[in-house]
Design brief:
26% strand, elongated, minor pseudopilin epsh fold
């Protein structure tokens, strides 16, 4: 009586079942190849992350532009965004009294780009206006706000007098 008679398998078939799988050498080779590929791809992922931070910063600033335009229309009040090009910050402000021109401004919120990695700051050579006013009638100071990161990638937020904004990216 052969070993595999009770289960219906012959001893040769049992040996074939136990011969499957990978050797430790094969596993080490595959893991080595994967490690080399990961090391080659790592710088590319870093560049993608830095450019992603620039995109996030530009979209955050563009959403603040849209927010102040909506608030100016809804509350019948003057609002503005004041850029500090040297410090890499901007301040959302509202007029203390109704009417135009505004005598004094109150800061609602100050923001900077330190929350975003990648050394993001304003490109002072391409930024055309530093104070963007939002009128209760929906009219906005038109201009371009330019951002750049440490890789040399750029983002330009163009604001039309009607308050519509366009964000363009030149990624490196």
């Amino acid at each position: 009586m052969e070993l595999g008679d009770r289960t219906g398998m012959k001893s040769r078939e049992i040996r074939k079942i136990h011969q499957g799988g990978f050797t430790i050498t094969e596993i080490i080779i595959v893991l080595s190849v994967l490690a080399i590929v990961a090391l080659i791809a790592l710088p590319s992922f870093h560049h993608l992350a830095v450019n992603g931070h620039l995109k996030s910063a530009a979209r955050d600033l563009a959403s603040d532009v849209a927010l102040l335009k909506e608030r100016a229309l809804a509350e019948n009040r003057l609002y503005r965004i004041s850029l500090n090009l040297a410090g890499g910050t901007y301040t959302l402000q509202q007029c203390d009294a109704p009417g135009s021109p505004c005598a004094s401004w109150t800061a609602i919120q100050s923001k900077n780009f330190t929350g975003f990695a990648g050394n993001i700051d304003f490109d002072s050579g391409s930024t055309t206006v530093t104070d963007y006013s939002f009128q209760p009638r929906g009219i906005v100071t038109g201009g371009t706000i330019a951002l750049r990161n440490g890789r040399g990638s750029r983002a330009a937020i163009t604001i039309s007098p009607s308050g519509r904004q366009y964000v363009r990216f030149n990624l490196q």
